[in-house]
Each structure stands twice: as structure tokens, then as C-alpha cells.
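User: Can you recover a sequence for this backbone? Please restate the input before giving your answer.

Assistant: Of course. Working from this structure:
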């Protein structure tokens, strides 16, 4: 059904998502341990979220011009090195807040380009007649990583501290890079006609925004999704202080809450898939 390279890509995406769960919980826990400040927790979210937003808006044409598998390997390598900074400084007893901010910023920047590039690779490694199933399997694997990762990360952090969780994150990234480098050679995307220039690059970005001009309803949906995501981020940024100060619990509880949230999302998606085609979408 599916080409051999597809399983390699599936492993890469799953490993990355699993590692992300460990890294995110560990960095949030370390920031609060270092500062005890809710403002610092918000700053950590901003240091990751702002670069990710900008790169998603401005970096999308890159995956259409570069060798996608190598590009993903480079992004994973940068994320590995980013996590190595707070891990190394923590093991040396010299960890400072800015180390975590730098790691979060680099990780967020790479995450903005990693998954869109991975999604663009799927049609080249999966059976063209069963693309829907190929995407569904990858989505299911990501959901499984989102379910298992936070709970395991929380248990490890509660038992051994946050630094071992960062170590697991690094191991996952290293394994993802190895898997990517072992993929069968894939063709580079066809170059865009004409010579590359900043003007051409900006035009390609602008063309992406014209889609919403043609379909105004999609713009409304995107704005609603943005508001929802903004609210969700605000809640989860304060989750570590809530667990520590209100519930008086440890990292294991934090991980369990994250897992339950992911489970709720998965249940919601399952309900929608069982309902099938929805006629009164505005009402829903």
C-alpha cells in the first residue's frame, strides 16, 4: 500500500512529536523553578510563539524551493542543538532563564517549517491512490504521541527532574534525524519559473494571502481559530503555576492534565468523523 519511505517519514514525525511533549513540559517546569514568575511563563510562550508565527507567514515558500528531506533534517538538527543549550548548562549547574528563551525561540522557529514541509513530502512517499489513509495514519500517530508524551514526561520530571526530560527530547530529535537521512532519495521540488529574487519571494507570500481574498469565509474561520488558539495558549501558559500553587501537585499531574486535554481533542475529532457531513455547520 505505502512506499517504504512513508514509514520512515511516519517515524520521523512521531519521534518529533513525542520529543516535543518532553521538551515543552521540561522547559515550562524549569522556568517556573528558576523564577516562580507567571510573567516569565508568559515570556517563554512569547519567545516561542512569535518566531513560529512569523516563520509560518514568511517562510512557507522555502519548502517549495529546497530539498525537503534535507531541509527537515537541518531543522531537526537546529532544534536538537537548541535543546542541548539548557540541558548542558543545567548539567553544569549554570542554567539561566535566557538559555530557555533561546531554546524556545529556535524550537518554535523550526517547528513552524518542519510540519508543513513534512506534509508536503507525504504525496511523494505514499501511494497516490491512498493519500487520505496515509495522512490519517500520520495524524493518528501524532495524536498518540500527544497522548503518551505529556504523561510520561510528567512522570519522569516528577521522579528525576526536568533535565532528563530534555535529554529524552534530544534523543528523539537525534533518532528523527537518523531516520530522515536513511530515507530513499527523493526528488527536489521543481524550481519555480524565472530567477529567484526577494521580489519573487515576497510575491509568492502575497499569493498565499490572496486565497483568503477569494474565499472570505475562510478568513473568518481563520480569525475564529486564531482567537481560540490564543485563549488556549493563555490557559496552558498558566497551567504550571496552577498545578504548583493551587493544586499543590507535581509534574506528573501536569503531564496527566496535558494528556487528558489531548484525549478530549481526540474524542472530539472522533465524534465529528462519526457524524460525517454536517449540514448546519454554522449552528455547530
Amino acid at each position: 500500500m505505502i512506499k517504504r519511505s512513508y514509514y520512515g517519514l511516519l517515524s520521523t514525525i512521531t519521534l518529533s512529536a513525542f520529543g516535543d511533549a518532553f521538551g515543552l513540559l521540561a522547559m515550562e517546569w524549569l522556568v517556573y523553578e528558576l523564577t516562580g514568575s507567571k510573567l516569565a511563563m508568559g515570556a517563554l510562550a512569547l519567545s516561542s510563539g512569535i518566531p513560529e508565527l512569523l516563520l509560518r507567514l514568511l517562510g512557507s515558500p522555502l519548502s517549495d524551493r529546497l530539498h525537503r528531506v534535507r531541509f527537515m533534517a537541518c531543522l531537526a538538527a537546529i532544534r536538537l542543538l537548541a535543546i542541548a543549550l539548557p540541558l548542558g548548562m543545567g548539567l553544569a549547574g549554570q542554567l539561566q532563564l535566557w538559555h530557555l528563551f533561546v531554546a524556545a525561540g529556535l524550537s518554535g522557529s523550526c517547528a513552524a517549517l518542519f510540519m508543513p514541509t513534512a506534509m508536503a513530502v507525504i504525496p511523494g512517499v505514499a501511494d497516490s491512490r491512498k493519500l487520505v489513509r496515509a495522512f490519517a495514519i500520520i495524524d493518528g500517530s501524532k495524536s498518540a504521541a500527544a497522548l503518551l508524551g505529556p504523561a510520561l514526561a510528567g512522570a519522569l520530571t516528577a521522579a528525576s527532574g526536568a533535565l532528563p526530560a530534555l535529554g529524552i527530547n534530544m534523543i528523539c530529535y537525534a533518532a528523527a534525524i537518523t531516520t530522515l537521512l536513511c530515507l530513499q532519495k527523493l526528488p527536489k521540488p521543481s524550481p519555480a519559473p524565472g530567477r529567484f529574487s526577494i521580489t519573487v519571494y515576497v510575491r509568492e507570500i502575497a499569493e498565499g494571502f490572496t486565497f483568503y481574498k477569494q474565499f472570505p469565509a475562510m478568513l473568518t474561520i481563520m480569525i475564529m481559530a486564531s482567537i481560540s488558539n490564543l485563549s488556549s495558549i493563555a490557559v496552558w501558559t498558566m497551567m504550571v503555576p496552577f498545578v504548583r500553587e493551587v493544586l499543590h501537585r507535581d509534574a506528573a499531574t501536569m503531564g496527566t492534565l496535558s494528556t487528558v486535554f489531548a484525549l478530549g481533542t481526540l474524542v472530539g475529532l472522533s465524534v465529528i468523523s462519526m457524524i460525517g457531513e454536517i449540514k448546519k455547520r454554522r449552528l455547530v
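That completes the design. The domain at 4-275 is CATH 1.20.1250.20 (Growth Hormone; Chain: A;).
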